[in-house]
Design goal:
Strand order of the largest sheet: 3-2-1-4-5-6-7
CATH superfamily of the largest domain: Glycogen Phosphorylase B
Number of domains: 2
Radius of gyration: 20 Å
Largest sheet: 7 strands, parallel
Number of strands: 13
Oligomer: single chain
CATH topology of the largest domain: Rossmann fold
Structural class: alpha/beta
Distance between the termini: 15 Å
Helix content: 40-55%
Bound molecules: uridine-diphosphate-N-acetylglucosamine
Number of helices: 17
Strand content: 15-25%
Shape: globular
């Protein structure tokens, strides 16, 4: 006789979509396998934390993610308002659907809000990408990670440092499962398509002769002073090497508010564009000389692609991208020197691709959830 388990999968903001896609495909593969006794019934919930076409729909299209079963359409708001709206709307889904598990990914407000709701309804929570710590509580994501991991029943980790963080916090060993990096499942599935697209040609860029930039963290872009310094360095550097900067709505809003937009528009080789989809992003990263970012995902993707990455942050919750990969932390003070040196860095990946960043993380997750 076949058993059935019911999962609710949560996505809400841009970096969630690449993490949820491979889980959906692994579930479909699992269900199609006649030898598997436990079948999975799954429901996809989009909280609507991100709602612009380029921040959400573009990823559903690029990654072939089916339409969500529910869209909570919470939109933007302060952290408290956004989190509360998600909680109120998600509670109704939980009561109606009565899942065995809620599966959350990453560290965004949607992740924490849905974990909180499910836990209080005694629904088990599995957290994909558990155990990462920046040890910086000024980052909203760090608070989200701490709360989610404290409440989740199953902690699925991307790297061994995450296991160590959880053990140090007193988490029981049998809750922790090292499954590898889910983001890399999507990368390996889509990198060929991204390369074939040759998106750099669309912007008249030459291979390995441009810098790919994404910056959206409040600590970098919410203050006039820091955003001005960043844009000043980038404009100066663009005279030597073109810069392409797909700009997050938060960054764009601040650029306008601080009166920096017009100045930047005059710089010849500063290509500022709206946010772009997954294939275009990976294609542009893959052919860049180096990447400047404050994104978590790009630190991991550049490590696997072997592209030098400068991360404009005082810390990272993804230390393997430094010890194994191509990542280097930088500051506003050292940004200029680091950017000049980056393409000459020569040495790329330091110790090979981190363990279990192999494209099979989703299969391991599904196998654990059904065992
Ligand atoms: C969120 C995540 C962050 C992740 C980032 C990726 C949290 C706490 N942060 O930050 O970890 O790296 O997503 O993008 O969950 N906006 C739009 N259109 C959209 C979405 C947002 O215009 O589709 C604008 C709104 O003005 C909004 C602002 O961006 O107020 C910030 O959006 P929000 O979802 O609160 O946080 P992010 O900065 O995107």
């Amino acid at each position: 006789m076949n058993n059935k388990i019911k999962l609710v999968l949560i996505c809400g903001a841009r970096p969630n979509f690449m993490k949820i896609a491979p889980i959906i495909f692994a579930i479909k593969k699992h269900n199609a396998d006649k030898k598997k006794k436990t079948k999975i019934d799954h429901i996809l919930v989009h909280t609507g934390q991100h709602y612009d076409v380029q921040m959400s729909e573009a990823f559903f299209r690029d990654l072939n993610i089916p339409e969500p079963d529910f869209n909570l359409e919470v939109g933007s708001g302060s952290h408290a308002v956004q989190t509360a709206e998600i909680m109120m709307r998600f509670e109704k889904i939980c009561l109606q659907e009565k899942p065995d598990w809620v599966v959350v990914v990453g560290d965004v407000n949607s992740t924490m809000a849905c974990t909180f709701v499910a836990s209080k309804l005694w629904i088990k929570v599995a957290h994909v990408e558990a155990g990462l710590r920046s040890f910086d509580r000024q980052m909203p994501e760090e608070i989200n990670r701490l709360v989610t991991d404290a409440l989740a029943d199953l902690l699925l980790t991307p790297s061994k440092d995450a296991d160590r963080n959880l053990l140090r916090e007193g988490v029981s060993k049998n809750k922790i499962k090292f499954v590898g990096n889910i983001m890399i499942d999507t990368l390996l599935n889509h990198v060929e398509k991204a390369r074939q697209l040759r998106p750099h040609t669309k912007y008249n860029l030459t291979e390995k002769q441009y810098i790919f930039v994404t910056l959206h963290r409040p600590s970098n872009v919410d203050e006039n002073k820091s955003l001005t310094i960043i844009m000043k360095h980038l404009t100066a550097l663009s005279k030597k090497m073109p810069v392409i900067f797909p700009m997050h709505p938060r960054t764009r809003k601040n650029l306008i508010a601080f009166g920096l937009q017009d100045k930047i528009a005059k710089a010849d080789n500063m290509i500022i564009i709206d946010p772009i989809g997954y294939h275009e992003t990976i294609g542009l990263v893959d052919q860049s000389a180096f990447v400047l970012t404050d994104s978590g995902g790009l630190q991991e993707e550049t490590t696997v692609l072997g592209i030098p990455c400068l991360t404009l942050r005082p810390n990272t919750e993804r230390p393997v991208t430094i010890t194994h990969g191509t990542n280097k932390l930088t500051t506003l003070k050292s940004l200029n020197d680091d950017m000049v040196a980056a393409p000459l860095g020569g040495k790329r990946r330091k110790r090979g691709i981190p363990p279990l960043w192999d494209g099979h993380t989703a299969e391991r997750i599904v196998s654990i959830l059904t065992s």
